[in-house]
Design goal:
8 helices, two-stranded antiparallel sheet, about 280 residues, two-stranded antiparallel ribbon, mainly alpha, 4 strands
Amino acid sequence: MIASQIDFITPHITDGHTLDYPCLRSGFVCEYELPHWNPIHIGRFVLDISLTRHVIMLWIAALLCVLTTTLALRAHNRRTAEGKAPSGLGNGLEALVLYMRNEVVLPNVGPHGNGYVPFLLTLFFFILFANMLGLVPYGATATGNISVTATLAIVTFIVIELAGMKAQGKKYINTIIFWPDDMSLGMKLFISPILTPIEIIGKFTKPFALAIRLFANMTAGHVVLLALISLIFTFGSWFLVPVPVLMGIGISVLELFVAILQAFIFTLLSSVFIGLIREGAH
C-alpha cells in the first residue's frame, strides 16, 4: 500500500487506460476512464485493441500534423495570390520544410530522392508533435513507449529495404549475402559465410538503434523531472521548494530542446540509411 502511494513517477511514463484532465479537486487532476473493447482472440494470442493514453496522443499528433500543414498551405497560397510574401505560420513552416528537404533529406538520400521527402517530412513532424505533447500539462509522451518507437522504426525499416530493392534491383541480394565482385571465387567462398551474418545483423541494428534512441531520450527527461519535483514531497519542507522548481524549469527547457533534436535525429538517420542502401545503384 505504501509503495503504491509513493509511486507517482511510473504512471507518467507508462501507458494506461485513463486520460488526465483539469478539475478543481484531486490536486487539479482528474482521470477519465477510456472505453474498453472486447479483445480479439487469434489462436492462443489475445489482442487488446482498447484505447489507451498513448493511442489518443498519437491521434492528436497526427491531427496536429494535418491541421498545421493545411493551415500553413492555405495561408501561403492566400498570400501568394495576393502578390505578397509569405508570413507568419506559412512562412515559418515553409522555411522549416525547405531546410529539412534541402539540407537533411536530399543530401543524404542521394540522387533522385524527391520521392522520399514526403515520408521523411511526415516522420519528422509526427515525431515532433508526439514529443511536444509530453511537455504539455495533462499530456503524455507516446514516444516514451517502446511499442510506439519500435513501430516507427519498423515502418522506416520497410521503407529502407524497399528503397534498396527499387534502386538496386537484382543486386539487392548483395545487401544480404556478402558476395563481392572484385574477389576470386575461393576468397568469396571463404569470406562470405563469415560476413553474411554480419550483413544481416546490420540490417536489424539500424531500426533497433532508431527505436531505442528515441524511447530512451524521451523517457529519461520525464524521469529526471519527476524525480526532482518529488524532492519537495520527500523532504516535506517549503524551504527546499525553490531548488527543485528551478532545476525542474531547467530540465523542462532541456526537454524542449531534446524533443526537437530527437525528431531531427530520427529523420536524419532514416535519410542516411535510405541513402546508404541506394548508394550501390549509383
